[in-house]
Design the sequence.
């Protein structure tokens, strides 16, 4: 199967070929690749792709996967609508 | 030990732009040092907006010149991708009488400098952004040539162009000290080695003050956390950035489809904190739900923070210093370093190479804060 057809990040539609090209051009950390390719910035926040990218970096640099630093985890854990947050916050103010 | 004609501390957009411009002028042995990953600092954390609607003459000039560069950046830098320069304007809302009067003055100033801003009534503003809550503002200003640039890709465009011209980059390398002897810079010491040089550019963003102190130069800036969030992607809904200083919000849909929005925290302390808070999320959600209810239907997928490096008059310091020969600085951008980067790099190159500086740019000197009361202050800041 061509590397172009292997999807690493489903949220941003990034292929294994894209990741390898990025590694070849000198970006060799999860944080670097995230900023160049947007991997890990979609709705799943890297829950699928980050581990795969970690593995690809390890292979590329000849490291153990666990030695490749993972990306910073940021809030939120899952997507929540702004309207829902606003209504809850306004409700909280009424109850104060 | 490496010999450098200049060491640039910070590979954020200001450092990158200056490195590129210096190399273009023929300078060799330029070394750019950054303590983290690519765009780890304020550049990679910014709101991606580029605007020319300011209340001070200086900021208008800097912004206009920078916007002109963004228009030709892909071509000039020979970038193989696209910096995603989108010019669909900034719509700035006035929500009270005082703001309405101030905006009247702002538009006059901006027009006198060639910035094509227009003042709009509520009805006219609704034609530009139909989903605005019409009861949330009383008038607006609109400049159609303002817009958006992708900070990661703009940085990469400068980075690759600078590398092609021979600039050396060192990421994941923290500067520990700057050695000065008899009023002359001798070397820069990092966690990995030493750079022999007599010139240093402080482009350290949130850490500009600390880098200044390493060289014994006091810079009157401080850092403050500004938080921001991004939503899931949506179909094209909103062309312009919608902004309000009094309601404390900026909100734009980027070409990728996500909405980026942020606001400042009036209780933020001077610090290097860049964490996320639930208070921000609550306040941001309430504000956007009030002004742009349609946008509030989208889901937030991520929040983060970044440092504003604030100067006393909320205008940048682009300068050398009489205190130490060979020490240059680009700091105190007060949240607007990304959008001013093209002109920052050009001006610093003129200063560093000892060329004649345009008259207006003398006011960017650090000496403006010495024994002087601040007479000009930028109010148009979120």
Sequence:
């Amino acid at each position: 199967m061509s590397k172009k057809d292997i999807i690493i990040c489903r949220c941003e539609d990034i292929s294994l070929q894209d990741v390898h090209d990025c590694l070849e051009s000198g970006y060799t950390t999860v944080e670097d690749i995230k900023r160049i390719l947007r991997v890990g910035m979609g709705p799943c926040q890297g829950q699928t792709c980050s581990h795969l990218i970690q593995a690809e970096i390890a292979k590329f640099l000849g490291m153990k996967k666990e030695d490749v630093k993972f990306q910073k985890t940021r809030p939120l854990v899952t997507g929540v609508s702004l309207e829902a947050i606003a209504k809850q916050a306004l409700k909280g103010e009424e109850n104060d | 030990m490496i010999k450098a004609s200049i060491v640039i501390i910070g590979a954020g957009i200001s450092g990158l732009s200056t490195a590129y411009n210096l190399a273009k002028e023929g300078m060799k042995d330029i070394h750019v040092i950054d303590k983290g990953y690519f765009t780890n600092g304020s550049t990679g954390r910014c709101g991606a907006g580029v605007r020319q609607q300011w209340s001070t003459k200086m900021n208008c000039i800097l912004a206009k010149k920078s916007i002109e560069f963004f228009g030709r950046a892909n071509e000039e830098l020979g970038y193989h991708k696209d910096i995603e320069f989108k010019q669909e304007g900034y719509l700035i809302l006035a929500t009270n009488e005082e703001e309405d009067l101030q905006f009247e003055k702002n538009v006059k100033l901006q027009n006198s400098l060639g910035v094509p801003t227009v003042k709009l009534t509520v009805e006219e503003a609704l034609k530009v952004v139909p989903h605005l809550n019409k009861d949330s503002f009383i008038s607006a200003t609109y400049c159609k040539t303002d817009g958006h640039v992708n900070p990661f890709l703009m940085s990469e465009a400068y980075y690759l162009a600078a590398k092609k011209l021979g600039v050396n980059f060192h990421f994941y390398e923290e500067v520990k000290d700057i050695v000065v002897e008899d009023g002359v810079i001798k070397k820069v010491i990092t966690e990995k080695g030493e750079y022999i040089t007599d010139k240093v550019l402080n482009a350290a963003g949130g850490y500009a003050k600390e880098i200044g102190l390493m060289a014994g130069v006091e810079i009157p800036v401080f850092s403050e956390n500004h938080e921001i969030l991004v939503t899931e992607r949506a179909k094209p809904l909103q062309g312009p950035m919608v902004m309000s200083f009094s309601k404390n919000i900026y909100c734009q849909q980027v070409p990728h489809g996500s909405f980026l929005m942020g606001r400042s925290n009036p209780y933020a302390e001077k610090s290097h904190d860049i964490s996320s808070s639930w208070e921000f999320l609550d306040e941001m959600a309430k504000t956007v739900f009030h002004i742009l209810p349609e946008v509030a239907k989208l889901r937030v997928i991520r929040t983060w923070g970044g440092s504003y490096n604030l100067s006393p008059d909320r205008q940048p310091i682009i300068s050398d210093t009489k205190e130490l020969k060979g020490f240059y600085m680009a700091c105190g951008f007060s949240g607007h370093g990304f959008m001013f980067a093209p002109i920052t790099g050009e001006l610093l190159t003129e200063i560093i190479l000892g060329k004649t500086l345009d008259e207006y740019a003398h006011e960017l000197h650090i000496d403006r804060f010495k024994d002087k009361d601040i007479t000009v202050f930028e109010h148009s800041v979120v």
Notes: The CA atoms of residues 133 and 291 of chain B lie 5 Å apart. The first strand of chain B starts at residue 2 and ends at 3.
